[in-house]
Amino acid sequence: MLNRFLLRAISQIQSPDQTSRKLTIPKIFLEALCSFEPLPKIHPEVLQYLAKSLNLWHVALPVLEAQVVLFPESERHVHALQEIY
């Protein structure tokens, strides 16, 4: 459900040159998610998209690093992390 919400919110942002207000919404939401204990599982592809397309790498990177530790068998997390680095 969380991933569907994120994908819907992201799809409404057309390009990074839109107003800064629209780009701030995913950033604030992602930062709020990072403060949750335990950290919710977010699809690594969603985090990778946020990091690369919306320039939110500084927020998505720690989440992916934590998820690699939590889910070491998941190659998807490792691949997304490599793409961001």
Quick recap:
The chain is an all-alpha fold. It has helices at 2-11, 20-34, 44-53, 57-70, 75-84.
Walkthrough of the structure:
The protein has helices at residues 2-11, 20-34, 44-53, 57-70, 75-84. The termini are far apart. Helices cover 69% and strands 0% of the residues. The chain has one domain (2-11, 25-84). The chain has 5 helices and no strands. Helix 2 (20-34) packs parallel to helix 4 (57-70), helix 3 runs antiparallel to helix 4 (57-70) and helix 3 (44-53) runs parallel beside helix 5 (75-84). With 85 residues, the chain is mainly alpha-helical.
The overall average pLDDT, rounded, is: 79
Radius of gyration: 12 Å
Instruction: Spell the H/E element sequence.
Output: HHHHH
Give the total of domains. Answer: 1
Give the strand tally.
0
**Low-confidence regions:** none
Number of helices: 5
| Strand proportion | under 5%
> Which shape, going by the Cα principal axes?
globular
**Distance between the first and last residues' Cα:** 28 Å
Quaternary structure classification: single chain
Largest sheet: none
Question: What tags apply to this protein structure?
Answer:
85 residues, mainly alpha, 69% helix
Topology:
Elements: H1 2-11, H2 20-34, H3 44-53, H4 57-70, H5 75-84
Helix pairs in contact: 2-4, 3-4, 3-5, 4-5
